[in-house]
Amino acid sequence: MKYNHQEIDQKWQKYWAENKTFEAKNNSEKPKFYALDMFPYPSGAGLHVGHPLGYIASDIYARYKRHTGFNVLHPMGYDSFGLPAEQYAIQTGTHPAITTAENLKRYREQLDKIGFSFDWDREVRTSDPDYYKHTQWIFIQLYNAWYNNDTDKAEHIDTLVEKFASEGNIYVNASSDDEIEEFTSNEWHAFDDAKQEEFLAKYRLTFLAETVVNWCPKLGTVLANDEIVNGVSERGGYPVERKKMMQWNMRISAYAERLLQGLNDIDWTDSLKETQKNWIGKSKGASVWFAIEGHGDLKFEIFTTRPDTIFGVSYMTLAPEHELVKQITTAECKDAVEAYISETSKRSERERMAEVDKVSGEFTGAYAIHPFSGEKIQIWIGDYVLASYGTGAVMAVPAHDGRDHAFAKKFGLNILQVIEPKQALEEGFDIQETSFDSKEGTIINSDFITGMEVKEAMAVVSNKMEEQGFGMAKINYRLRDAVFSRQRYWGEPFPVYYKNGLPQMIEKEHLPIILPEVEKYLPTETGEPPLGNATVWAWDTEANKVVENTEINNLTVFPLELNTMPGWAGSSWYFLRYMDSENKIDFVSKESQAYWGQVDLYIGGSEHATGHLLYSRFWNKFLKDMGFIDNEEPFKKLINQGMILGTSAFVYRINNTNTFVSKGLKHLHDVTQIHADVNMVINNELNVDAFKAWREEYNNAEFILEDGKYICGSEVEKMSKSKYNVVSPDIIVEDFGADALRLYEMFLGPLEQYKPWKTDGISGVYNFLKKLWKLYIKEDEFVVTDTEPTKEALKTLHKTIKKVKEDIEKFSFNTSVSTFMIAVNELTAQKCTSRAILEPLAVIVAPYAPHIAEELWSKLGYETSIIEAQFPEFNEEYLKESSHNYPIMFNGKKRFMLEFSADATKDEMEKVVREHEKTLAQLGGKAPKKVIVVPKKIINVVG
RNA sequence: GCCUUGGUGGCGGAAUUGGUAGACGCGCUGGAUUCAAAAUCCAGUGAUUUAAUUAUCGUGCGGGUUCGAUUCCCGCCCAAGGUACCA
After folding, report:
1. A278: which nucleotide lies closest, measuring CA to C1'?
2. Domains of chain A from N-terminus onward
3. From residues 53-82 of A, which are strand B contacts by CB within 7 A?
4. ipTM beyond 0.90?
5. Distance from residue A425 (CA) to nucleotide B63 (C1'), in Å?
6. I need a surface site. Which of A132, A236, A481, A762 has the fewest CB within 10 A?
7. How do residues A679-704 score in pLDDT, each as one tens digit?
């Protein structure tokens, strides 16, 4: 009987499904363990070899936890809303729900073939109305909440309304929009509903506001930065501009400090915490208001981290999008400023941040007044200042800030030194040539702070500004409120209708509001989102249901929101749903979430570091504030699996044409690099016909070939459907079995590391499985006996137990695979047949290669799953060595080996080494200066 | 640009706290078996040098600390991920 992976895989996958072997119970005498994977987006390309990497790791850990006595929750589901299905719908007219259902089916089949210990009864899908009704409900909770800085938590909006009614907003300490007009309780009562709502919106945790987006007029849609290449749309190559739009936003900034502090309480890698910390970007500094000459009371606010340099200000820079620019620009400067703004609107924010050497700007003709000195300061606009960061305005101190310096130099603006460096600078240092950005120094040329140290000056300036009413110390966060509207079809509809232009929430009992059918998935001709095409998309407030648009009367029937929610909406809370996925009423019951608590182990890609992982923490904290769940942080321990990278293929389109030029000739043209599907490329050569048939826009494409071939470029990058470089695990499972795939993915290298995919080494792990099999079954015979194990076999077994246990606990799965190989090689050489060795061996291998382990377990005579078996205990007795072979080194270089008994003392060993003839030969008879003996490691002779 | 991670043989990688660099696997070379091949088994395999012993070099590059550095420190180079509407 040979090792037949296909038969064994099927047999045990069927057994696990039928016996619900991996069902998690919501109560148990065993301790609980919650192991979670980041759920996949089910793309049309199917599961690729990168997906299972993390799933296999968490599966090994989850199975190990079961072997050590835990009640394990290990669920899986799908992040099933998203752009690709919608894109496909636009291209083919197929409803995204159909595409998604097909993709999902394929994913499930693929996942099933790998033998995961998932509890499939708890599966969730974000695009399922039974799921997204809760996403809609959470949205409503956020709408009906504000953040009270005094209690440092979110509260129901009613408590804010009470405050307004009793004392106005003057004493309210909330996270809110900047610069809210003050009102008294009397004024509040005098406001009409619309006015009251206008004020409440400035405090709500989700609110409508104007936000800048990448607008592509030709496609009539908003684009992700991802969809823009070289300033034009990736699809079609159309121009893109920055435009303001009314959008739903989430006030994540209210949680900035808690998101930052919470990092101290979770077991995540330092690099990931660092990334989130930098993303939140806390900085201490000051807010300063500058008056504008000739504009009466008009002032604008800047944020600076260096209030100590306020006397070094030589000009101001506003973001070109700053709201005041139009108002203050003088007639003479108008044309140039407008041209510059229009130019800037074509550049993406990322370009503006990246291209630091492209210094550009324009003088507005207006002057600010220095609050202390009263001097006139030129106001410029420059694209190095971003509207979305801080207040979109900076006070420029060229002597002490690199970017301000470059700007001042280019435009011949004054550079005034106000800090004297503490340490003498290199000779020839000239503040006119290079800025001095360090905070180590003494203030000069600065009125009342001259002579102070930087730190002291910062505080003094802040205090003085506060006294005089034009500034104060302030903490600023880089973290911006998150835009929550998408002009897309395939996402959660908002549970929102508009009455007199004001948003109204729909009651919980009428949820879900189901995504309507549309004829076309594109934006409407008037530029509205795809839901603008829906004909049944109005809310009847009497019947409490969605009705035909023709019934809209704005008295009882109102238009519904046309935007949908972003991809991260559904993924921000799915980990809670798994705890209680059958709950028909609430998103999770109090009891279920109390039992499962935090996710004990979360495995997923580091590319989610600042998106999903921050948004989930935000929603989790909010839900806790509102009393729905108990834990402040959702994910106790988190491991980033490194991505498996793909090899992408590129074609080169000559700009503004539909002609593609082969790689070797691309330097002769201005070209745009575009991804081609790797499945259309063999040995870098493009299958031109397949490419033409790939997309409608390429049907008539023309090609400039070299040597009769179209040669593609290639790059190693993320494996992703959008890069068309996806490789599927199916063939590997078919040819080598699920256990080989599992072992191989682990064997590739450390879990956390990025690695390009290659199939070359798979035969190694397959050979290992065959050798493992042969320890138990030779020819057709089951050869395991009850003979006493040898000392060597016990040593092999126990060092394997020790190493594998340590490896699993530190998520070093690649080294376990090597350890198994060594163990099997040794036991084979020892001709071991003892049950006392081979039975525990099957259990240690089981988390990694569960199918073969189950089969061997049943051959060993067991009738229940191997998952019931206890993980074997390590016994140190078997590993004791009577001697150790020491390398004898001279000045760090190994020269020969010497064996010493385990109980030899340091002095004894030193003596032997000193007197050894080879030592004398090495040193030419001279006595060693020193001998260093490190027990169980090395002996080093210093000559 | 900025933030994060990584760079070790032909390839994937190992090396627990600063202690024998290259475990394990792939590939390659030679051999056994076979009519032949597949499969399997055995031996070898960082580079230079040598018949061999040996010696020298060697963990992206340049410095430093140390008896001893893949590991710690300083300065660079290269690649990947993220950079706020891909998920």
Report:
1. B3
2. 31-138+568-641 (3.40.50.620), 282-477 (3.90.740.10), 494-563 (no CATH), 644-718 (no CATH), 760-878 (1.10.730.10), 881-942 (3.10.20.590)
3. 79, 81-82
4. yes
5. 23
6. A236
7. 676 656 777 888 888 888 888 889 88
